[in-house]
Design brief:
Oligomer: single chain
CATH superfamily of the largest domain: Zn peptidases
CATH topology of the largest domain: Aminopeptidase
Bound molecules: zinc ion
Number of helices: 14
Length: 422
């Protein structure tokens, strides 16, 4: 009984800290902790003061990620990470929940006066959102070693400020950023844990507080160009047309069917056509050119490959049916990043102990955790997201769900620290 009260008080402390941070870094439109700006620095100053009040110190790697280390009996380290930065007009939980819960994990061990069996490190990744310069997972991909100079050296914000200058303003330089993997390599990291708000409607639809995240989706993102012949809408009989839009529309409908076909209970996939551009875009002309986008995501690499192949076949059939040609252009792809089976088991146990159930779901959005998967066993936990909303001021996890989720995550941290220390 006493441990339950204790756990509940710990969760309340996390919620109180989150409220405090929200008050400090939000306005009437929501959170304003955009990376590399003054409010973000204020959030980090607040966090540093909290850490220092525990008698611990923060350390910044060369990509601007902020690390805190609490030495354990063993050097083998459990990493807890997420990001304090937000999108403009963002929510009060996206990102900072996962850092502030790490603060509580540290606080608990410090207050107990006992060294944890293994070392605990909390990391606040720099610029997860990419809200200002368009490159998300900036700090974690630098740390993971996947960030390329060519991805970022040309980037500017809407005001024309160059990323390299924003870095300089924050005491960072691109050469250093690209060497941040050296810092990670020196850490004997054996586990990475991340708590995040779901940002989607799945847990809410099941009325579950907390979810075990199976991994982050792989993504196939492409442009598809259809090319026919523009013609007069009054004089050109339908069988004689080469209508590029109709080929695109037929493809888009088939892409929806591909998504439905490969979705199974507990293993949903998604397919989206989010862009359509038509030429000449005149009410009295048959469209001669049409460009659409394709975004397909799945947790299983074979299924993703199958979905991609089927979308290509569908586009070729639609092109043939409409007497037009089709051409594909790759925008971006990433392979699925499934999480570690042992940590998944610990995560499931933790969620079940606190909430009585342990629903599993994949993550559609990418997270910093994806960058850690190649280097160490990784797992994530999700909190219920009211109305599935995120990246807006309405973002919320109702109190009861939030408290349970925080308790489940702190349980996972304890279990992992014990597991590595054993
Ligand atoms: Zn986030």
């Amino acid at each position: 009984m006493s441990t339950t009260i204790n756990a509940s008080l710990r969760a309340q402390r996390v919620i109180q800290d989150l409220r405090e941070l929200a008050t400090l870094t939000s306005d009437e439109h929501g959170a304003q902790r955009v990376a590399f700006g003054p409010v973000w620095r204020q959030a980090r100053d607040w966090y540093r003061a909290k850490i220092e009040s525990l008698g611990l110190a923060t350390e910044r790697d060369s990509a601007g990620n902020v690390w805190v280390t609490l030495a354990g009996v063993k050097e083998e380290s459990v990493l807890v990470g997420s990001h304090l930065d937000s999108v403009p007009n963002g929510g009060w939980l996206d990102g900072c929940l996962g850092v502030v819960v790490g603060l509580e994990a540290l606080r608990h061990y410090v207050e107990s006066g006992q060294k944890p069996p293994s070392t605990l490190r909390v990391v606040d990744w720099a610029d997860e959102e990419g809200a200002r310069f368009g490159r998300s997972l900036f700090g974690s991909s630098a740390s993971g070693g996947s960030l390329q100079r060519s991805d970022v050296e040309h980037l500017q914000d809407r005001q024309g400020v160059r990323l390299v200058d924003a870095l300089k303003e924050n005491g960072l330089d691109l050469d250093g950023v690209l060497q941040a993997h050296d810092y990670l390599k020196k850490i004997p990291a054996k586990a990475y844990l991340e708590l995040h708000i779901e940002q989607g409607p799945v847990l809410e639809s099941m009325n579950k507080s907390t979810g075990v995240v199976l991994g982050t989706f792989g993504v196939e993102r492409h442009k598809i160009f259809f090319s026919g012949q523009a013609a007069h809408s009054g004089s050109t009989p339908i069988p004689m047309r080469r209508d590029a839009f109709l080929a695109a529309a037929q493809t888009a409908l088939e892409i929806r069917e591909i998504g439905k076909r490969h979705s199974k209970p507990g293993a949903n996939v998604v397919c989206t056509v989010g862009v359509v551009k038509v030429e000449p875009c005149i009410v009295t002309a048959v469209p001669g050119e049409c460009e659409i986008s394709l975004d397909q995501r799945a947790l299983d690499a074979d299924i993703l490959a199958q979905m991609y192949a089927e979308a290509q076949q569908a586009s070729h059939k639609a092109a043939q049916d409409n007497n037009v040609t089709v051409r594909w252009e790759k925008l971006w792809t990433i392979e699925p990043r499934p999480f570690d089976p042992t940590l998944l088991r610990l995560c499931e146990e933790s969620v079940r102990e606190v909430t009585g159930d342990a629903p599993r779901l994949p993550s559609g959005p990418l997270h910093d955790a994806a960058e850690m998967v190649p280097w160490m066993p990784t797992v994530m936990m999700f909190a219920y997201s009211a109305n599935g909303l995120s990246h807006c001021k309405e973002e919320d996890t109702p109190g009861e769900h939030l408290e349970k989720t925080i308790r489940a995550f702190l349980t996972l941290v304890d279990k992992t620290v014990q597991h590595l220390g054993a």
